[in-house]
Design goal:
Blueprint: E1 5-8, E2 11-14, H1 49-57, E3 66-69, H2 79-92, E4 97-102, H3 106-110, H4 115-121, E5 124-128, H5 134-141, H6 149-162, E6 166-172, H7 177-190, E7 193-197
Parallel strand pairs: 2-3, 3-4, 4-5, 5-6, 6-7
Antiparallel strand pairs: 1-2
């Protein structure tokens, strides 16, 4: 079994799936089999909730203030396990904040609106904006929903903001400064916080 829980630069992360509808040009998982203190993040078989629960039960969460759903896959591709895991963490460690790093395509992945149930269980939503329009977004993310993904991601973000959660949108510093500024305006129009991620640092 690959690592389900790992740390990176002081943060604690949950790796619950390797599935993802995107193959982003800048994806960190193209760099190697693991990051941070993980030995391996690629699963031979997707983990069950019992696998995830066992990893949580065996982990020392002393001094952990936040846990992030972000591994070598899109967490909402394992939506049922994501929600079960979040609920279990809230029961066992109510003081720990939960964040999800997501491509925002959960509604397309799962075939239904999902913002409300995710926001009911996760405190902070971080959506990868990545680009400024549908065509550029499809080109850089190489997603399986061309022509639909960009608008679906914006709608998901909007609905998360409406739920009252802390919501942020991110871009990686591989796009132009002009597009970074355009991205900032898109983010602010939705009511989310804007973050520029470092490609070199892998986060």
């Amino acid at each position: 079994m690959a690592d389900i829980i790992y740390t990176l630069e002081g943060g604690t992360y949950f790796n619950i799936t390797n599935k993802c509808p995107c193959s982003c040009a800048f994806c960190i998982r193209k760099k190697g089999d693991a990051v941070g203190d993980a030995k391996r993040l690629w699963f031979d078989e997707e983990p069950s909730f019992e696998d995830i629960k066992a990893a949580i039960d065996g982990y020392d969460f002393t001094d952990v203030n936040e846990v992030v759903f972000c591994g070598y896959g899109e967490p909402t591709n394992a939506l049922e396990n994501l929600l079960k895991t979040a609920k279990y963490m809230k029961e066992k460690y109510p003081a720990i904040k939960l964040r999800i790093n997501t491509n925002g395509l959960s509604d397309l992945i799962n075939g239904r609106p999902t913002a409300q149930e995710i926001c009911e269980n996760v405190d902070i939503i971080s959506v990868s904006l990545n680009e400024t329009d549908s065509e550029k977004y499809d080109k850089i993310t190489r997603n399986i929903f061309p022509g639909k993904a960009f608008d679906a991601m914006l709608q998901f973000t909007k609905e998360c903001v409406e739920q009252g959660n802390k919501v942020r949108m991110t871009v990686v510093d591989v796009i132009s400064e002009e597009d970074i500024e355009k991205s900032r305006k898109i983010c602010e129009s939705l009511g989310a916080r804007f973050i520029i991620r470092s490609f070199a640092r892998g986060r």
